[in-house]
Amino acid sequence: MGPLLKFRTSAILYLVVSLVCTQLPLLNYLGYEFSVVIALLGTFVAGFLTITSVRQSYTLITNSQQPTAAVLSSFKQSLLLNLSLLIIPLAVMLTNAFFVKNCSLLEGFVFFLLIPVVSVVFSWALGFFCAVHYGWAKTAFVAIVLITFAEVLAVGYFTPAIFSYNFFYGYFPGLTYDEVLGIGRPLVLFRILTLILAAALVWMTTLILANTSVGNTSWKKGAALLNAMIQGKSVFVTAGIATLVILTWWFRGELGFDSSSRYIRKQLGERLATEHFIIFYSKESYDEDEMQWIAAEHEFRLKQISDAFVLPFKGEPKAQKIESYIYPSSEIKQRLMGAGNTNIAKPWSGQIHITKQSLDATLKHELVHVLAAPFGLPIIKASVSTGLVEGLAEAIDWRFGNRTLHQYAAAMHKAGVAPEIRGLMLFTGFASQSSSISYVLAGSFCRYLIDTYGMRKMMLLYRTNEYEALYHKSLDALITDWKGFLEGIPVAENDFAAVDVLFRRPPIFKKVCARVVAARNAEARKLLAEKNYADAQTLFVKSYAETKSYESLNGMLTSSLRLRQYDALTAALDTIISNDRKPNQFLPLFLIIGDALWGKGKLNEAHRLYARVGDANISDGLTEAALLRTHALRDSTKRQTFLKYFLSDMGDSLRLALLDSAFTPHEHRLTEYLKTRTIQRQNRHSEVVQTLRSFKIVRMDSRRVPTGRVFDESSTFGESTDATLEAFRLKMLGYSLFRLKEFEDAKGAFWQSLNFVATDVAKNEVNDWVERCEWMESNLKRVN
């Protein structure tokens, strides 16, 4: 096939691939994902076109002749041809922008320059080198490309990093649920380095042309090249290239190109060893006393999981201790190993990577992955089915909001939200849905299999993925049985509200401008944290105008509340939320809209919104916040002080000062409750116990205020209270007693909380705390 025909074929290939991308979510606009697809295509197109063009000129030279200018001419012409071919995908996506929203064409264009354009230039240079240096030029080119891919796989396997940089596809962020992906300094630096190495390849090829003949073997050409590189002025260029490569490799962690275990440990700085763990952490996160509890929590969770597997933990032969990396923040975690908001485990290396903020919620889940390693496939130490990997972890952890996984799954099916689970249990189907849906349904299904058929069969399934051989039923038949089981689980009206809140968020594939908007919202959240509310509001408003997403609306309303723009929040309730087909999905926003209504003096309307959040019982945090506001509304004399407290953006110390200045000691049980929440965050557990033991929230008539009726403002916090708050009080008391090592009293407090809230989730939580108290009482000193 001649160069001209290959050019036409390549043009058609670029066009077809680009047109296909216009029909695929996340690839249908000018952004990172589309750029990577074109870069991978361009790698081989540019390499093969260059080799064909150069070889045609190069082989016409006789063995006795020196290479002529014709070779360099064809080489330069191939660059123009390859770069001109990139106009095709760029034009297709720019045209598609008239039909599919592009939230940042400028960023997309920069991605296109940094990824496919640079990749094509590098592949062009490598193709030139291979065409001149090797007899089997295309084979050599493909081998070099595959070697770099193999190196990336090796880095991902043997180091904590899940991200990678590569000359051909530019950058890969790793398979995570993180949506934020911008153009960072490491990517720009790496692509500059790529262009420098491309220039080095061209220079080296010209040395081969100048110092060898066409008929020389690859070995002879290689020897001649090395000799030429250390002769005359060339030695300085060689030294510069070598220095650049060495420095880049030595400082690859600091540059952000790679991240080894050693580098991450150095950045975190601290290390603590226990019987089964080596924990790496930062002094910013924990002091020595706190680390004793963290270490004990690791050992306790390991014991729980080992009991669930009915096997003692022994560890892998080369990794007797599990390595636990605890990062101070998601930003630092993202920079050091690639996953910011996604906590991960690497079962084959016995590692877990968690942020400080998510430790309590995800430690047990991630440890399941590591302890299940002996049951997984060789090398990866896990199941080939993501649904089984994550479903098993969810089934054993068994914690997700204020309902069991079975209750959520049953509610999802009855609400028509649940997708067909068969796809989730296959290799690629798990990520096709939003993470909350996939995790909950897979966890419920795996727990059903464990409870019905036993753990042993589940662990065999984990390795083989052969349902029929183990259960004597097909996967479809097992799914039918599971659905029948779910039919027997009662679903209340507030369960549907929780479904709307938790399971109606679209996956990244169905979001508009997912990467651009996620990065913009992340920047807006930083501005919120810095109390730059006006600029944060501007960014959130822009994101909401483009996407109508919940995250953007939440940020927009939060910043408006901080700016005391109450009308903006009430307008959102009237025009956006009330007119939505599923208004319950906005329930968490009812708290801040209720605060705005309170600020405008519309107390009855605020109360109704708070009551809806409390009834939905989505999470302890939302439920508690709603109940506290409900009771604060009842106090006509201190109502404005409470509003100031709830709207305050002050730190804990100033918030405590606000309550102390407005109330005399023990004047108001609500203030005592709020103060206790604050001092517990400060680990002042003796004060917490003393305060919480000084009052009780007594369960009385908790009838709901009828819609349209103003609540009784004469009632006080002590006279009309909610059993749920009493349960919260007792669990607060239990936690502080636990931290004071008064384990028997802690167990008593937790058990008493079931007198007020005794849902299945509450029972599971209390049983977990009681088990933790008993284990700590016997093992805390031994662990440390």
What does this entry look like structurally?
With 784 residues, the chain is mainly α. 65% of the residues lie in helices and 4% in strands. It contains 36 helices and 7 strands. Strands 3-4-5-7-6 form a 5-stranded mixed beta sheet. It is globular, with a radius of gyration of 31 Å. The N and C termini lie far apart (71 Å).
Structural class: mainly alpha
Count of helix runs: 36
- Head-to-tail CA distance between termini: 71 Å
The coarse silhouette is: globular
Sheet with most strands: strand arrangement:
3-4-5-7-6
Count of beta strands:
7
List the main descriptive attributes of the protein structure presented here:
five-stranded mixed β-sheet, 65% helix, 784 residues, 7 strands
